[in-house]
Amino acid sequence: MHEFQRADMTFDVTDSGPDDGDVVVLLHGYPENRTSWDAVTPRLVDAGFRVLAPDQRGYSPRARPKGRRAYATQHLAGDVVALLDAAGAEKAHVVGHDWGGAVAWALAEQHPHRLKSVTSLTTPHPRAMNKAMVTGSQAAKSWYMFLFQLPVLPEMAYSDRMQDRLRKTLRGTGLPGDAIDRYITPLREPGAATAAINWYRALPFSTPLKGDVSVPTLYVYGTKDAFLGRKAADLTGNYVTAPYRYEVLDGATHWMPEEVPDVVARLVTEHARAHR
Predict the structure, then answer these.
(1) Phi, psi (5° rounding) for residue 270?
(2) What is the pLDDT of residue 10?
(3) What are the residue ranges spanned by the domains of the chain?
(4) Is 221 a catalytic residue?
(5) Residue 160: pLDDT above 90?
(6) Catalytic residue (one of 30, 59, 71, 200)
(7) Active site residue 200
(8) Is 22 a catalytic residue?
């Protein structure tokens, strides 16, 4: 597969590995795209998995609807279900990083019958996140999420005048320079930055999750994450009723797929093999 359809949208996807292997879906975050998994995918393929890595809604140029409501998490989760249908996969192991983790949590609660397991890298369960916003320091770390609710202003970070500052900020959080180029350049295309930022703007329209994840779950947190604090990470297990594994990577930053792909692939492989 190189692409798949949902309604009038066409999504770009990388399909790697044996056709008869257990399916692993890799969901990127912001401001990434499917290339964030380039170092993880070969390791999973070597382990025998079929790996599907899509450019998600707003990141695929032909799947860029207008309006923030179109980017609510229930719609993003539905896109992954459409991918599974197109791939002929009844069930899959879903792995999400950053915003991809939020989509993975939504899938686990709204479409559990399509998942064999779920893995979230860095992103805690949304209810744990909300609690940490009130009782911990997460609100201070998430200041940009409030900024992104504003019109027009957030997109200016991708302008000729401001992009150098954006690149410097991302480097300061641990993201490698070559990855920054791969992510920032596509988002400078007309409409692309708005679509990506609309994921944040759609939060008020996303279906709230109950916090009863019934799918075997792996959650991985890095102690040097610049955006997500430890409190929400520690609380996440409270919202999973299925077998749960919590891994803390000492010294890892937010950008796990790029920074520690070998560790990510090993943990995902162990988790998937344990829940076939």
Answers:
(1) -60, -45
(2) 98
(3) 3-274
(4) no
(5) yes
(6) 200
(7) yes
(8) no
Cis peptide before 126 (omega within 30 of 0): no
CATH 3.40.50.150 fits 3-274, yes or no: no
Judged against a pLDDT cut of 90, whether residue 138 lies above it is answered with no
pLDDT tens digit string along 166-216? 999 999 999 999 999 999 999 999 999 999 999 999 999 999 999 999 999
